[in-house]
Amino acid sequence: MHNTLLAKQYAHRTIRNYTQEMRFLFSHYYDLLPSAISQQDITNYICFIIKEHGVGREKCHQVAQSCSFYFKHVYPSPFIIPAAFYPRKNHKLPQVFSVAQIQQLLAVITNQKHLMMVSLFYGTGLRMNELRNLKLADIDSKSYQVKVVAGKGGKDRFTILPKHLLEPLRNYYKNCRPGVYLFEGQRKDLPMHERSIQHFVQTYIGKIGLGDKDYSAHTLRHSFATHLLDNGTDIHTIKELLGHSNLATTMIYLHLQQTKRQAIVSPFDAVMQAAL
Fold it and tell me: Does 143 lie in the same domain as 65?
């Protein structure tokens, strides 16, 4: 399975996650050969990890993706229908920072490196791994754009670089002198670890009183898209900036848009106004 994923040029993280999930499955059914594992066995395993380990939808989806890949490309089985394992789609709307909350968040960050990372999360709409792996060569200061190399799905794209971040970026470079990666970890040749980034972002979110809510570094990406929409940017442009493959994924931000919703007049208000 590892070699098949590698040959298909899946991301290192995907290879690790898929192979790990299949190890867990095979360990659970240690007395069965892969050829003997049935569709019902996989369903029972997913029910087991939900009941015994309290896993959520994301974990179940990852198990389903791993089984789907294995029984399609590694050990094809006509008796297993991978689509049957996927949990129902979650229609929960993501959290979004208001403009005032973004201003509060930026104001409480005193560390220059942290401030630059949070600013880029919000100013460019990058995903976590895209920001981590950002290199100096990916910053195009003349065109005010950032090149995302091998983003999700192995796709390259461009997103915007805020003009107000150019000078702070230059100051950051002068003070921190990064080598290859814009945001390095303990080792100069490696990017900063995801857990470290999540930790400091959550710390600052807590400082503005939102620590008990469902906010994270990814909320900055949702806020980037929603605020662009509020400011009149068309949905297709936002789709390209975010690197979405499907427009339906981007359409969720229409539900979060504030300007149009605030302009709507309830028919009840219209009736009451007419009665005055």
Answer: no
Asked, for residue 197, whether it belongs to a domain, the answer is yes
Summary count for the chain: helices (H), strands (E):
14, 3
pLDDT at 251 over 90: no
Q: Tell me the catalytic residues.
A: 127, 152, 218, 221, 244, 253
What is the predicted pLDDT for the residue at 194?
92
Domain span at 155: 99-260
C-alpha closest to that of 159 among 243, 231, 246: 243
Q: Print burial letters for 226-254: b (CB count within 10 Å at least 16), e (below 16).
A: bbbbbeeeeeeebbebbbbeeeeebebbe
- Do 131 and 121 contact (CB within 8 A), yes or no? yes
Could you read off the pLDDT of 115-136 as tens digits, one per residue?
999 999 999 999 999 999 999 9
Q: How confident is the model at residue 90 (pLDDT cuts 50, 70, 90)?
A: low
Same domain, yes or no, for 145 and 232?
yes
Split at pLDDT 50, 70, 90, the class of 58 is: confident
Shared-domain flag, residues 61 and 190: no
* Structure tokens belonging to residue 174: 């002068």
How many domains does the chain fold into? 2
